[in-house]
């Protein structure tokens, strides 16, 4: 008899990943039948018209085919040629061979330098160990490795924010762990609240769950909030008090739009307060920021305050599927070692970066203001990341799943219901990206407004 | 307190992946200290000098940077330009955007056509459903998805050949399943033997293990054997009798060296005998064959005889980490739709392919004959794949682990002990790849011969 659905584990069956769930499947069906769909369900910038950075693609093309540096010499600026040659030389075999399980050494070294430079401020001289850096296929794979390590029994729990990015809930379920939701405080712009963290912890203890780690997404997905140093400090003390590791999802670190706000990494703050007892896993990606290279799956995980014997276990886990893809590793290298002022590629690189980031800032503002103009929809400030997560006043008994599905059918706008990210009981939300071009954002807002006013 | 080794699960701690284990770590240390190492531990052709195919890299370079088709038009043949344009058009957003979770549709369609063409022979008109094809980051990730699906409880077992490729043992342990080893028959060139399969099944039942699937690696890793149709038919009947799914690891399907031998896929044979009750997961990769593109992590999994509701579960699992990397997806597309006679790229493509495959055939023969000339070492015929797995006569009480570690220290030749792949109690083996260039193979054999004669 063929494999049946009844043969599968509860862990598989109960895994739920809303960002690509039934609403998106329905959107694809509608699109196949000729309906125009605006995909606001997923942070996929190049699918909504964002151009890849010229510098990055030029180097990657030369790495794929080094002969181009000879036969089409004129098509590459000097620093692109040098960078590609350096990569090919340092990788020894080019991008067609497996690398070490952790990833190419020179890339890990460059990541450590990037972290040290980024985090050496405010009186802190930061250092990072390249042997504690892992190249991953996007940040997702790094998160999964960390969760694999931390969930040792069906009783082990991971604190995740509510709302959260569903990679976390899905992976925790799939790995047979327990999810411990802690609420973010919508009224204060989705801020952290120590009381809400302790509440979550108490509930977990009552259920006999052993909490192992806390996930913090900063800037926030889906919330768009950016953490203050005080909130981060509070989280570190909380983690220490309860013997938790911290998983710091920092993939939106370049995506901060509110003037005056600055990204602070957990690695920086933990160095600043000389915290060496709390294990830290931080994640970064080439899919977000201004690269937006989602398809090429680059990213890294840096691990701190973890003994060498645990590092060896992580390396072993990485080795089972051999290594992260090499184009993604090269991309990650380019992210952490971009052209600098004076190099031939710098001017265009800088222009393209600034254009993308200021455009994203503009779209965040348009989305926030536009949604807030709709009676019955309320959106907190979008200070960072790539999403809006507005609350909806819905008629009694109706759910945001129904709302989003009907919105899709009526307007072609594809957003994801709040139920996929988690929310306080009795509230309703959806997540939309801020990624459509400005002309489309207006259309999206108008469509939602018209829909919202008549939906019952 | 930081995360401790005692916090980790037994599943993590017991996972063992020999191909990148302590011997390889030691090899890297020695290399860092200036010793010349010949890495025969892993099938990584480009690290041992195999050149990537020009056609493939030209198309990939153009996909990374489409402007090259204009600014360096002369550097691309007509069919390369067309192919790249087709890929960019069909993918809609190029290679920088996430694709569908299953992978790009046109790539899946091309894979289905490839399978149908490959498998339509011997009176069988084969068909393949693109909706049952999944693009994966190398074959490894596909294998892991299938095992994730099949291991539903700590009592679920997977039959794997002994010797096997340690991806299987490692993943089964990591996912908390039970490994059921079935011996291959060394004396008959590592053939399959129904009695040995039934023995394994009986042992499993006695231990209360519920067998869920059988893994077959054809051509064999590490054995180099190629299955006959009769053996495959026996496996299918065995699987049906015991209600097992089949995992067909067919990544070496292009690597058959013995004249007259032909690759037969499980999909073909199951169509031929009209078997519709046995679920089949088959795997292919761009890392082996004559592409050897290990670093770019391309591959696919095709699923058969599985109900649609299970297909939906597989798609959900794939979606949690978004999608396979797009350069790898493009590479897989090129593997299944190579240039054809008459196209401008064909001649060089064909030359490069034939040169690689005939070179690999030559190396397989050299390795087999060379090892068999050493008294106390016996190697079965290397009919396919990329490895030799000779048996060793060792002094009483000595292990192949010690042997390989000492061989490495003495000669710089890095091979993997039989204990990492599994072997009959009381026997000793190592696995070496056949990949070093011919001049190095002679050196490897001489080094092993000299070492073997004096090692006590």
TrEMBL record, chains A, B:
The keyword Membrane appears for this protein: no
Keyword Acyltransferase appears in the UniProt entry: no
Domain Aminotransferase class I/classII large: 73-448
InterPro entries: ALAT1/2-like, Aminotransferase_I/II_large, PyrdxlP-dep_Trfase, PyrdxlP-dep_Trfase_major, PyrdxlP-dep_Trfase_small
GO molecular function, one term: L-alanine:2-oxoglutarate aminotransferase activity
Record keywords, A-Z: Aminotransferase, Pyridoxal phosphate, Transferase
GO process annotations (BP): L-alanine catabolic process
Record note on quaternary structure: Homodimer.
Family: Belongs to the class-I pyridoxal-phosphate-dependent aminotransferase family. Alanine aminotransferase subfamily.
PANTHER family with a match to the protein in the record: ALANINE AMINOTRANSFERASE, ALANINE TRANSAMINASE
Protein name (record): Aminotransferase class I and II
Originating species: uncultured spirochete
